[in-house]
Specification:
With 338 residues, the protein is α/β, with parallel strands linked by helices. The protein has 2 domains: 160 residues, 3-Layer(aba) Sandwich (Rossmann fold), CATH 3.40.50.720; 168 residues, Dihydrodipicolinate Reductase, domain 2. 31% of the residues lie in helices and 26% in strands. Helix 1 packs across helix 9 and helix 9 packs across helix 10. The longest helix is centred in the last third of the chain and has 18 residues.
């Protein structure tokens, strides 16, 4: 089986190396000149490739920044190639289901941690309840030792970080989809953390019969107040300047932590939890996201997802199999009631 990974950044490289170690023939396409042992690296821009480029591969794995999500999906549909993608797209990717189904391909979008792993856990929990009523997802990656003035360190894409504060966040209340301003929803969480509502529910808003849903992103206390001031001052309007000013203060100085808690409320409360810390020089955010992407990819390579069209993570056939693949890579989810 031949796989092409689009994007050789931290997450793309890590998923590539794990696929290689599993005996998969992997090629990486990146705009930079890369050298990864045992992997074919092609320097190129996905925007300039023809759909025919994908014909030589059995599966496309998209690890590019969010601005490329729609374009890659359209290229894969046109080229009739299966796709697993961690990239965000503003459009509702479920709208592409008829085209993907007609093309005879399978697309698993939002194949990261949240959305991604979180969706799988929600899907599992909903199946275990007779009448699920509420879903709450709390997730975040942050430094072990946050320091002023920003109380945060960046381990991923700057533009995607700012999007969390500026993109209207969709929630579900009494069965209706509502939109809120992320930075108007701040609340304390304890243990030196706070949270705000983010636009991570995505397909969950439409696929599962739960009347109340919300995703909240965790940050160290103090960070969100600074972001709100910057937004109120109009600093988010000039992203290029904002990046030049904030980047020195967002440089990684300490190890990171990733926390995830998913609660599904009904006749009882089910929960799933994950806490990962940086190890072996790989950040918790990079490792957990890349290994989630890896596990979705392995399901596809092993032929364990046979449905055609756009299949969001909560609707994959092998939810337990996905978690077993993750656990095999050292990512263990704890769960229970209460």
């Amino acid at each position: 089986m031949r796989v092409v990974v689009l994007g050789g950044g931290a997450q793309g490289r890590y998923v590539t190396e794990n696929l290689r170690d599993e005996g998969v023939e992997v090629t990486v396409l990146d705009v930079r000149e890369l050298s990864i042992p045992g992997i074919e690296c092609i320097k190129g821009d996905i925007r300039e490739t023809e759909p025919g480029f994908f014909r030589q591969f059995d599966l496309v794995v998209d690890a590019l920044p969010s601005s490329f999500g729609r374009m890659v999906m359209e290229k894969c549909i046109e080229g009739r190639k299966n796709l697993v993608s961690v990239s965000f797209m503003r459009e509702n990717y479920l709208d592409f289901h008829p085209e993907a189904e007609k093309a005879g391909i399978t697309i698993i979008p939002d194949a990261g941690v949240a959305p991604g792993l979180s969706n799988v856990l929600v899907g599992l929990g909903v199946l275990k309840l007779k009448k699920p009523e509420r879903v709450v997802i709390k997730v975040g990656g942050f430094p072990e030792n946050p320091s002023p003035p920003l109380f945060y360190e960046l381990t991923w894409c700057f533009d995607d970080l700012i999007e969390e504060y500026t993109r209207p966040a969709r929630i579900k209340r009494n069965g209706k989809i509502q939109t809120v301003d992320p930075l108007s929803t701040m609340q304390r969480e304890g243990e030196g953390l706070e949270s705000f509502t983010t636009d991570g529910l995505r397909s969950l808003l439409y696929t599962l019969p739960v009347p109340d849903m919300e995703e909240r992103t965790l940050r160290p206390q103090g960070h969100l107040a600074v972001m709100r001031i910057l937004k109120d001052l109009g600093a988010f309007e000039d992203r290029k300047r904002l990046k030049s000013v904030l980047s020195p203060w967002l440089k990684k100085r300490s190890k990171d932590i990733l926390k995830l808690r998913v609660e599904i409320h009904g006749e009882k409360v089910l929960y799933f939890e994950l806490e990962e810390k940086e190890r072996d020089g790989i950040t918790a955010m990079t490792r957990t996201t890349a290994l989630s992407l890896f596990s979705f990819t392995k399901l596809m390579l092993e032929g364990r997802e046979r449905k055609r069209g756009v299949i969001p993570p909560e609707l994959i056939t092998e939810k337990e199999g996905f978690l077993e693949l993750l656990e095999g890579k050292g990512i263990k989810i704890k769960g229970g009631e209460g």
